[in-house]
Amino acid sequence: MKHCSYIYAVSFWAVFLCLFPSILSAQSRPVRCEYEMRMEIPKGVLEAQPDPAVREIIRKQYEETTRTYVLACADGKYLFHCIREHEELSEVGAVRTLYEDASRDLAVSVEKAERLYLIEDTIPRHRWTITQESREIAGYPCTKAVTDGAVEAWFTFDIPFSFGPLGYNGLPGLG
Predict the structure, then answer these.
(1) pLDDT-derived band of residue 28, with 50, 70 and 90 as boundaries?
(2) Model-level pTM greater than 0.70?
(3) What 3-state class would DSSP assign to 89?
(4) In Å, what is the CA distance from 111 to each residue of 35, 46, 58, 73?
């Protein structure tokens, strides 16, 4: 599937907002959670820039790339979309909406690159390495996982859904 091409390490900090307290015991019940996504400045970028004013512009651009998304999933279907209303649609490469249906191995995304595109493909498979690093996020015990593409995700075994933000699925719990 065509993804947004982020050459930067992307960290996902999940803020879990479960709508149903009994969600932990049944996968067929719906889940809704919010995600905040921010990009980290790649190592060496600021150091390579001799002009302090340009370094500050780069730093500010990265600070402003924080986006808020909502993920809703139930019955093997997943919908992920940006909810930050003031974010401009003119941003190239930004995923607006992602829909997946596991029973049909279908992934559909709406992306912006000079114009809006509707892209239909199979659900991507990711190779995750689950680390020993853990921490609590929003009251849930979370474990860190990474892909070979420098994507870092925190997930919880307490919510047994293998969905995550931007199509980063395949973890043993909600990412």
Answers:
(1) low
(2) no
(3) coil
(4) 18, 29, 24, 20
Instruction: Name, in order, each residue with C-beta under 8 angstroms of 70's C-beta and a sequence gap of 6 or more.
Output: 32, 33, 34, 35, 80, 81, 83
Is position 56 within any domain? yes
What is the number of residues in the chain?
Answer: 175
Domain that holds residue 54: 10-167
Percent helix, strand and coil across the chain, each rounded to 5?
A: 15, 45, 40
Q: How far is CA 6 from CA 39, 121, 167, 171, in A?
A: 9, 19, 14, 20
Predicted confidence band of residue 135 (pLDDT cuts 50, 70, 90): very high
In a domain, 100, yes or no: yes
Report the number of distinct structural domains present in the chain. 1
Residue 175 maps to a domain: no
| CA neighbours closer than 13 Å in the CB half-sphere of residue 96 | 17
3-state secondary structure of 105: coil
